[in-house]
Specification:
The chain is an alpha+beta fold and 732 residues long. It is built from 27 helices and 17 strands. It starts with a helix and ends with a helix.
Length: 732
């Protein structure tokens, strides 16, 4: 194993990847935008007017596409694809594995003994039939019940990857249950569109016919040289290092963040951006992140469904491009101990089809009241469904990151800035019932009217807040880097939709009692501010004082994934999703089961890997070095005799004892770990199993790691089998 480490380092020193993988960037990246996308412009070129109108109506209003029109669209897609050298098509979908999936079928169709054509019809566009039982289903499908369906989602554009036409699709079981991330997301987006549009048209702007939730994600990741990656079995199998002593230098000097991007990494970024832009992904930002060899990229805001698809597509693209540049990309939330892990901030907002951002104030009191309405309702939604939001970002990888001075704590709170908090405190003073003309004027001029200026100066951000208002959007900061954005976006839009519907009902009831619309809105918002104040927090989310204060406020601190998942099936949450038509009770139970099983499986794999490495690599290496020390001591005794060698061999003998002690600890704790794994697997149900892995298995990781890392600092570097942190993190 140590030979593999040094061969990897030697190979790296011999290669000039900076020169070999240089990338030429065109003068205008904009000329490449959507080059490999069946975009609106491409549709205009290839579709009939009838087909173009039909697909636009499907995208904008959800109108069903007729079968004969689907045939026209399929032929146009095929002709465009063939002009690009495409040979196959696939329904590209996002099952509950956490990655994307695809089954390729060829356009090639023989129709006589010696003749063939390229064929693609409407039925092939609309639906495919992959094996549903082979994907996570939480017990919805039996192994012998294999049938499942992928169905075309026309709201997300088809694209070309290599020589394959990829058609974004939903994935459902034979009996209609959802088995993916996209279908529930589309339902949540429809629900929030209806509810928010109803508020806009009733109280603020009758010209609004659609509200579009928007998402701007920020993707963090690590790059590791491919040869060094292959020398670490823990990285290869689990995506993270399970052992490894921290290097003398990590991120203490803050010299990596926003620093000069290494040439080799820049070549990777250039090629990635070219391919992303060709696929219609509007990436605009790239920079070094806090930890060594950690980076970030981010796009412009897009409609949520398209943004989610683009993030999943980009993660796949990043892995492909990284391989070409002899890198391996790490999306794990905590691949290295002792340095910052990686997240994926989700910036969420609401836009109207009239061009307004509902979370941005305007130039008059009416627009500012509109802003306050959606702003306060969002806070109320997060307050009422905080635990559900916490569930949506729960994973084994993210458990390592939450609250570790690199990500917000597991306590869901909202940061809005002291100035805006002051505005809400003023609104709390609104008189119950009707307002006098003077009170209305004062409220609109001195409270509501000042909001734009307040937000202009309120540029501070709280990095310890899981849910922060940053001027014209809410930033959900606790999402893990490997996560599919769809889950947290489904929850965010669902709870917003529920809250908007409740708000509309309550305001309308007050209007019926005789209040003016503005008076009714102020009265309802006042009560929401009072109710939601518990989650508003401006201080240090990492402090012990906040944890104690949050408990007093009644906020849960769900530190682990099993703790979070224990809240997912709360009847209140089930009622929410069933009312909005997003999930059935059965689907929620299935998804909860899948998450619990995935958590247990991930921990079980990590446990087996650390046991294997400790027994088969670390212990033999330590004993080999110990034998060298023993031979050295024997030699000193032969040369200097009993009296003098005790002094001369003092340090060697101390090392021999220390090595024996750490080897003993590793051996005992590995045996205890394996017993704990068997005990966890014997539990009666998935919840008990996940809890056992969390509480009884994971604690042994640190014990084994501590002794292994101590040995790393004792054993001869040339004998050590695992590529070290200094090599993984600082080799460019």
């Amino acid at each position: 194993m140590s030979n593999l480490r040094f061969k990897a380092l030697e190979l790296l020193s011999q290669k000039d990847y900076r020169k070999d993988n240089a990338v030429e960037v065109p003068a205008k990246l904009s000329s490449l935008f959507c080059e490999n996308v069946f975009s609106e412009e491409t549709m205009r070129e290839y579709l009939t007017k009838e087909a173009f109108t039909s697909i636009q109506n499907a995208i904008k209003s959800g109108v069903k596409i007729q079968r004969d029109v689907a045939d026209q669209i399929a032929i146009a897609m095929k002709d465009w694809s063939l002009s690009k050298g495409v040979t196959h098509y696939t329904h590209w979908f996002q099952p509950l594995t956490g990655s994307t999936a695809e089954k390729h079928d060829s356009f090639f169709t023989p129709f006589e003994s010696d003749r063939a054509i390229e064929r693609f019809a409407g039925g092939m566009l609309i639906q495919q039939e992959p094996d549903a039982s082979s994907f996570p289903n939480g017990g919805i499908r039996n192994t012998f019940e294999a049938r499942g369906y992928t169905a075309w989602d026309p709201t997300s554009p088809a694209f070309i990857m290599g020589t394959t036409l990829c058609i974004p699709s939903i994935f459902i079981s034979y009996t209609g249950e959802t088995l993916d991330y996209k279908a529930p997301l589309l339902r949540a987006l429809h629900a929030v569109d209806e509810a928010a549009t109803d508020i806009c048209r009733s109280y603020f702007d009758k010209n609004v016919t659609k509200v579009i939730p928007t998402l701007g994600w920020e993707q963090e990741y690590f790059l590791v040289d491919s040869a060094l990656y292959q020398s670490r079995p823990d990285l290869v199998i689990t995506g993270k290092t399970l052992l490894g002593h921290s290097p003398a230098k990590g991120q203490q000097l803050d010299d990596h963040y926003f620093g000069s991007i290494p040439t080799r990494v820049m070549n990777f970024m250039k090629e990635l951006e070219i391919k992303a832009i060709q696929l219609g992904i509007p990436v605009t930002t790239r920079h070094n992140e806090v930890a060594p060899n950690q980076f970030e990229l981010a796009p412009m805001f897009e409609e949520v469904n398209v943004a989610v698809d683009h993030n999943s597509l980009l993660m796949d693209l990043m892995a492909r491009v990284a391989h070409k540049h002899h890198f391996h990309i790490l999306f794990h939330e905590k691949p290295f101990a002792g340095v910052n892990g990686s997240g994926k901030h989700n910036n969420w907002s609401l836009a109207t089809d009239t061009g307004e951002n509902l979370l941005s104030p305007g130039k008059n009191p009416k627009k500012n009241l509109q802003f306050l309405t959606f702003f306060v309702n969002t806070l109320k939604a997060v307050h009422d469904y905080a635990d559900l939001l916490r569930v949506s970002i729960a994973s084994a990888g993210n458990d390592h990151r939450l609250g570790a001075n690199e990500a917000p704590p597991a306590i869901i709170s909202a940061f809005i800035g002291s100035q805006l908090f002051g505005v809400l405190e003023e609104l709390e003073k609104v008189k119950d019932g009707k307002l006098s003309p003077e009170e209305k004027t004062d409220l609109k001029l001195n409270v509501v009217g000042k909001i734009p200026n307040i937000l202009l100066d309120n540029t501070d951000r709280n990095r310890t807040s899981p849910f922060a208002f940053t001027g014209n959007k809410f930033e959900i900061r606790a999402v893990g880097s490997s996560a599919n954005c769809a889950e947290v976006m489904t929850v965010m839009n669902a709870i917003a939709a529920k809250q908007f519907k409740t708000f509309k009902i309550e305001v309308d009831a007050l209007v019926e009692e005789g209040l003016k619309k503005d008076e009714a809105i102020f009265n309802v918002l006042r009560e929401y501010i009072k109710a939601a104040k518990n989650i508003m927090f401006e201080g240090d989310g990492y402090s012990e004082e906040w944890a104690a204060e949050a408990a007093e406020r009644g906020l849960n601190n769900l530190k682990t994934t099993p703790q979070a998942l224990s809240r997912e099936l709360d009847p209140k949450f089930i009622e929410l999703f069933e009312e909005l038509g997003i999930y059935t009770h059965r689907e929620m139970e299935a998804r909860n089961e899948i998450k619990l099983e995935k958590y247990s499986t991930v921990i079980a794999i990590e446990a087996r890997v650390i046991a294997d490495i400790a027994r088969n690599h670390i212990i033999p290496c330590a004993l080999k070095y110990q034998n060298r020390l023993i031979e050295n001591v024997r030699g000193l005794k032969e040369i200097f005799g009993d009296a003098e060698y005790q002094t001369l061999a003092k340090e060697q003998m101390s090392l021999i004892r220390d090595i024996s002690g750490h080897v003993s600890v590793i051996k005992i704790e590995v045996e205890n770990l394996l017993t704990a794994i068997d005990n966890a697997k014997s539990k009666n149900n998935s919840r008990e199993m996940a809890e056992s892995f969390c509480e009884e298995v994971i604690p042994f990781f640190a014990k084994i790691r501590n002794s292994s890392d101590e040995l790393e600092m004792m054993v001869d570097d040339e004998l050590w089998p695992l590529t070290k942190y200094r090599e993984l993190l600082f080799t460019k």
